[in-house]
Each structure stands twice: as C-alpha cells, then as structure tokens.
Amino acid sequence: MIGKLKGLIDTYGEDFVILDVGGVGYQVHCSSRTLQHLPSPGEAAVLSIETYVREDQIKLFGFRTDQEREWFRLLQTVQGVGAKVALAVLGTLQPSDLANAIALRDKAAVSRTPGVGPKVAERIVTELKDKAPAFASVDPAVVHLAGAVDDQRAPRPVADAISALVNLGYGQPQAAAAIASASRSAGEGAETAQLIRLGLKELAK
Question: Which residues does the UniProt record annotate as the domain Helix-hairpin-helix DNA-binding motif class (predicted)?
Fold first, then answer.
C-alpha cells in the first residue's frame, strides 16, 4: 500500500498529476485546490497518498497534508459520497473550513461544492457533526449553540436573535458566533432584543 510519494512533477492533467519517482511516473488524482498549490513541472513535490485497489484498476489519490487525506476518508463514510464528490468538497473547502462548516451545521457552505446538492450537504453535516469539532477552530460554545439551534433545543430568545441577524443578511455561522458571545455577556434570561443589540456590537468589532 502506497502512503506517500516524493518525486518531481512531470505533467498535469485535468484532475491529476504525473509524479516522477525514480523514473516511474505515478498518476495521482487530486482536488483542484491541491493541484493549484503544487509546483511547476520539473520541481519536487511530496503527496500523502490514498491507494484504491479494485478488481480492474489501481487508483492513487494525492493530498498536500495527512489531515486532508483524513477528511477524504471521513467524507466517504457518508452515504452517497464517493471519491469524486469527496475530492470536489476538498477542492471547494480547505480542511479547516470544512471542519468549521460541519461543526457549525453550515449546510450552505458545503453545498457550494459543484455536484453537491442540499440533500448530500445535509448528510455530510449531520453524519460528521460528532467528528468535526476535533478539527474545528471555532469556539466550542458556538459549536454547541449551532447544534442546539439546528436541533431546535436553543432557548427561544437565542434562536429568535440568531434568526433576526440572519434576516439582516449575516451568515448563520456569523450570527451564531455573535449571539453565543452576546449570551455570555448578558447571562441567562436575556431577552431577544438585548441579544440582538449585543450581537450586532460583536459583529461590528
């Protein structure tokens, strides 16, 4: 099983690169984001590799980091997500942004991926929500609040305040982060209007 390849960039294809390792050219399929970050032909590159062995073919997938490869594997645990869709997601969102989107239940961010509709985005966010926080860089309190809102467990003033900010044009993750901070400042029992006011102050910082 091939886990890593280090060699010289030979040529680029539409969704792959030929990596020359000691005179042997390996065809490695990569996301568009990975391809954009690789050097020019003739220069050295290192790729983390995921090897797929099928009855009729062996296919290599390459990633700039081990974390990106881990997300490639995780995405494919979701029903309806194969290698092609997983690569497309990683071409649209870098691993940290994907982790944040899943942790915050931001289905819209995931569905920006070409070929990923609302249903698949919903499955990705739902099925990976317990794994994403470990990779996410957002405040755990915001992750908790986003989950509570998504599951309709958040206190009514909090949910209404987030909804109000979203209606004002802010994204769901931004609104959840602002209201999480506002809730900490105001304490339990804060009214919707107070949370909105404090939330807008947070967003203006």
Answer: 73-92, 108-127
